[in-house]
Amino acid sequence: MRASIAVLAGDGIGPEVTAEAVGVLKIVAARFGHEFSLQGAPFGGIAIDESNDPLPPRTLELCLGADAVLLGAIGGPKWSSPHSTVRPEQGLLRLRKELGVYANLRPITVHPALRHASTLKSEVIEGVDLLFVRELTGGIYFGTKTRTAEAASDLCVYSVAEIERIMRVAARLARERRGKLVSIDKANVLETSRLWREVCARLMRTEFPEVQLEHMLVDAAAMHLLRRPRDFDVAVTENMFGDILTDEASMLAGSLGLLPSASLGEGRRGLYEPIHGSAPDIAGQGIANPYGAILSAALLLRLSLGLSAEAAAVETAVSAAIMAGVHTPDIAAPGKPPVTTQAAGAAVGAALR
Ligand code: IPM
Ligand code: MG
Q: Which one, out of 59, 138, 200, 270, has a CA that is 20 to 30 A from the CA of 92?
């Protein structure tokens, strides 16, 4: 097949991990006989440096015209002074909104060869296989903000339609998996959460009676994720709770660097990014973990291009590399020499060929 993929490498370790993901996509194209047009564009801090706009019109146009967007990471100390009015993160939020990708899927599994990498006990994390569905284009991230010398405010708004559409995505995924959905909110305090819970309960009763639904308060969810992570199948939650809980849940897998994400809207076009940030502290050293970026490319193949066999081949190759002990410093076992970002990408490429 022919497909156009916009590649936004971004800042910090973004370009390093994205290069490995792009390398893997090229191997997939060669091995399976596809033609991928991979086109890069400035985005994030680097785009601010060039044109004082984290999402330049040309970059947005490229993304809107592509079949899928592959993103590295954005941000860094250079652009994050509390006084700067133009920040890389604004570009990312605008891109998500413009693409209409309201459903952010963050799967988290524990690889048997990486039990040592987690700070949690093996018997707690063994067999973890959960999927977070984070609402991505609403809530407090997008509400009106005010600021005076004495006070500041961020408004959190959710509409019934926004809640219904994210619930449908989560419920469908739960139905394909183990049939369990946990909806996470703060309904004992927040009005948006009370609406969230009401809409969720009604929709699940009428449209997905076969899916087992549980409501959970976000503070309790933060605890249960560490206490009994295996019990979770699909968890659906609003934008900010999802941001926080998925960083927490990444520690089940052992490293933020391992985890991919897919952001989807109504069509097939999606935005794919590892859930880690730009990690400016380790940028340029060739030690970043590229597996999250490569697994994001696998999700891109499956969800935007419909190439399931190709996606599975990439996932199997990553798993084989992990099994063979090809570990960057964040996941290397004590006493075992870690490999570079490039070596990890190359190992995946070799397993794929
Ligand atoms: C994420 C990131 C972003 C978010 C930042 C960079 C704006 O933390 O994708 O989880 O908060 O959504
Ligand atoms: Mg985050």
A: 200
- Same domain? For 126 and 248 the reply is yes
Number of domains in the chain: 2
* Residue 273 Cα: closest atom of ligand 1: 9
Q: Does the Cβ of 275 fall within 6 Å of ligand 1?
A: yes
CATH number for the domain that contains residue 123: 3.40.718.10
The closest-lying atom of ligand 1 relative to the alpha carbon of residue 104 is: 9
User: Under a CB-based contact definition with an 8 Å cutoff, are residues 272 and 290 in contact?
Assistant: no
Which residue, judged by its Cα, is nearest atom 6 of ligand 1? 89
What angle in degrees, to the nearest 10, is found between the helix axes of 308-323 and 341-352?
Answer: 120
The residues annotated with a catalytic role in the active site are 141, 186, 219, 243, 247
Q: Are residues 265 and 221 in the same domain?
A: no
Report the nearest-CA residue for atom 5 of ligand 1.
Answer: 89
Q: Which domain holds residue 189?
A: 119-253
| Atom of ligand 1 minimally distant from the CA of 240 | 11
Shared domain for 245 and 337, answered yes or no, is: no
pLDDT in tens, the chain (353 residues): 999 999 999 999 999 999 999 999 999 999 999 999 999 999 999 999 999 999 999 999 999 999 999 999 999 999 988 888 999 999 999 999 999 999 999 999 999 999 899 999 999 999 999 999 999 999 999 999 999 999 999 999 999 999 999 999 999 999 999 999 999 999 999 999 999 999 999 999 999 999 999 999 999 999 999 999 999 999 999 999 999 999 999 999 999 999 999 999 999 999 999 999 999 999 999 999 999 999 999 999 999 999 999 999 999 999 999 999 999 999 999 999 999 999 999 999 999 99
Beta bridge partners of residue 309, listed in sequence order: none
Q: Do residues 130 and 235 share a domain?
A: yes
Side by side, which strands form the sheet with 234-237? 35-40, 2-10, 68-73, 270-272, 262-264, 103-109, 129-135, 234-237, 180-185, 212-217
Q: Are 233 and 170 in contact (CB under 8 A)?
A: no
Which residues hold their Cβ within 5 A of ligand 2, which is an ion? 243
User: Is residue 8 included in any domain, yes or no?
Assistant: yes
Residue 247 Cβ contacting ligand 1 at under 6 Å: no
Domain boundary among 237, 253, 269: 253
